[in-house]
What does this fold into?
Amino acid sequence: MTPLLPEEKKQAYDQLTTAMVAALERGEMTSTEMSKSARYILTSINMLENHEELVLFLKDLMNHWAPYKKVFVDFKSVDVAKEDEEKLLEIQDKLKKLTAVK
Amino acid sequence: MPRPHRPVLGGRRSAFGRAQPIRTQVVPATPEQEKPFSTQEIAAAGLRPGEAPAGITIDANAQRTIDWYHQNKTPEQVLVEASRPRIRPQTPEESTALRSKFEAPQQERLQRADNAVVDYQVYAEVTRRAAEQGIDLHTRTANNSKQLNTILREVDPRLANADARTIATYTELRQRVLTRFTQSEVFRNLFPDVAQQPLDQQLRRAEQLFADTSDFQAAMSGRVEQFRLQAQGLKPTESSAEAAAGDRIKGVQDRIKRRLSSESGQKVNLEDAEEQLRQGRNVEDVMEDMTLHLSRERGISHPTAVRQIVSLTGETTGLNAKINENQAVVAGLDTELKGTGLTSARRQSLETKRTELTAENLRLTSQRDNLEIRIEKHVDDYDGDLKKDTRVYQEVEDDVYGRANAKGERQGGIKSELDVMKQEVDELTRQERSRPKSERAAEQATEQEKLLGDYEGVMSDSMIDTMRERSQLLADTARRKGEADAQQLEKENRNNEARAVRRLTYGIEDEYSPLDRRGVRCTDKQRMAEDFNIITSGKDGLHRVFLRILSGGENPLVNFDNIYPPERRADIITQVGDCGGGSPDQQWAVAKSKLWQTLDLESFAQTESGQMLERMVQQQGTNFTTQFTAGLLEAQSFGERHGVGTLAISAAEWRRMYKYHRGGLKAGGVQYEELKQWEEDMKDEGVDISNLGLLTALSFFIKPREENEISSTGSSASGSSTSTSSHANISRSHAPRTPHTITM
It folds into this structure.
């Protein structure tokens, strides 16, 4: 479990708000949905303790209100990119060992 | 997106729109900072802010949230704003909709109240005028009808231009006014018995009351006490009027309390309100002032202010409509008055009506102005609160963004340093690459040598450390071992000393110290006695009897001659059977021998004699243990004196006894091995010694050899008493193969 950093939480707030406003401007979200989702975000996000919970929360949010999908995709893609990067580094290390590069 | 102007409530400009908080600009995330996505994902996720397509209608609440976002409020603030329940109208349309929501029922209520008042006023005026003109309203004559028509048309503005059926109208009017009155609480409280009667009778009673009571309106407006007194022909006293006023004030207080407690739960000091009510102020005004005052004290006045603004705006609208309506009527009257052909009565009626309407309009205008003043006050409160909110928000924002800036600066500084370092590293790398390969190789070799030297140095140091550590460990181990040895030696010394003391004191060798059933070593006589007590308890209870014999005392009960008196011996001989054909004494001797041989301790315990023995042992109690111990020692000395073992019991019991008194037996010259061998010999010869009674065995061991000569009498006594065993005393003295004749 990766502890949830304040910066990460702030980033979630930023992106969720941006997504909400974009949806409002585009008419994809009513003011009632806006109120409900905003309350849900405010009450839920403070209870999150780690990164995995945040991603799950975003997924749940996306299932309730589709305009928040982009935020979930963002966070998920960062995870995937990080995993890819780690794998790449691991492969590079192995290659270095195999070739014994000085 | 440009921010729309805030809607103005109550027809006045809100100060909120002028509040422009100054805050640090936050740059929204730029598209290139984001991870790339597929077109499908982007389409599903929606557009970014500012990319709103045309033709989309956004309601005021959503627009407000969008405005907050574009004003660079923090995301938390935007979300809080978005999550807030919508109680404030944001646009003129919302205000209108909200007002109409309250206005429609209010107008309906007002209309009903107006109609009721007009009904009452018309009815009162018609009745009064009819009484003045001597018209009997209950007598329907043509003259009466004509006069009533005239009166009605003059009094009721609703009938002025209508060709109404006035008699029917009057009947309906009377019905409405009196029915309303009879259904009022005032009437039902005053005349509960009449209220139970049919409607006609109720109406008649109400009409009578109406005719008799000069201040009927007082009754209708709730001055019950005064009306009751008047109805009873009494004048209202000062005290009763005060009491009525007190009731009224209390009612108002309760209402204020209810209203305020529902908001805050705070107690309210109502002295001021009471004073104002006594001075004749309007109840609603007092309530509003109190509510506002307390709300302001709590610092949460703006929800209340908003509600008041909405409510008062609705009232203002209603008043304006009424004023406009009155003005239209007055204009109509003016037009009619300017015309010709009016009768004087008609003209007078129209002028009266016009005067009334003008007066009413003046009153309504005054009310509306008061309302607008109150609205202004509420708006000021509202704006003040919003200003306060804005100030708080601004402070929080400044704080948050200030920290964010400071953090950003720090991060920027670190990043700059990192950039510089990276540049240096890149430069070094570039220089390194540009050097000739041979130079680099030579440098690398030097570096390796240096590393090797360092390595050896490190290894040497490490080895020295290891040796030092090992030496220290060995020293510690030796020290600990020495300590353990010393402790062990000291412990052995203590044990030896204790053993010597015990040997000197009790003559007990530790190596033979008895172990009780729990494996605990017994070290003194008292403990031995306790252990023997354990042995003699429980199902082995009878053993106590035989152990009692070991005490050396005379016990007549174990003598069969004493147990069975001469008169019973014939029965015993018969029961035992096969006692030979000798004299009765001989047969009795055989029977006794068999009895000893076949004595089943458990069965014996059930006999009268056995139980008697048991009781005897129980009565002796703990004294028995002491006696036993003493007897044991005595038996030991007896054995020593006679050169035989101290004890003999059944094989199993013997082993147990031997275990507990091994030292004593050894002292008596009896070795366990010898006894064991004897037991084996007996088995070889077909005698299960474990079945022998204790006394039988005992009789072999405790009697001197010369006294232990056994005369074999039974058919099974095939062998002599001379044993072939080489086991010294025991073998020579005690090798029974047959039932024995015992003399005790």
Chain A has a mean pLDDT of 85. Chain A touches chain B through 36 residues (CB under 8 Å). Residues 6-75 of chain A form one domain. Chain A has four helices and no strands.
